[in-house]
Amino acid sequence: MLILAKSLLGLMLGFVLSLILSVITIPLLKKLHIGQSVSHTINERHLKKEGTPTMGGIIFILTTLIIMIVLYLRGSIEYSYNLIILIITFLSYALLGFIDDFLKVRYHNNKGIPTLVKLLFQTIIAIIFYVIFRKNGGTPTIEITFLRTSINLGWAYGLFILLVLVGTSNAVNITDGLDGLAGGLSVITFLAYGVITWGTTWLTGYQDIAIFVLTGAIMGFLVFNSYPARVFMGDTGSLALGAALATIAILTRHEISLILIGGVFVVETLSSLIQIIAIRKFHKKVFKKAPLHHHF
Question: Left (φ > 0), alpha (ψ -120 to 50) or beta: where does 148 sit?
Answer without folding.
Answer: left
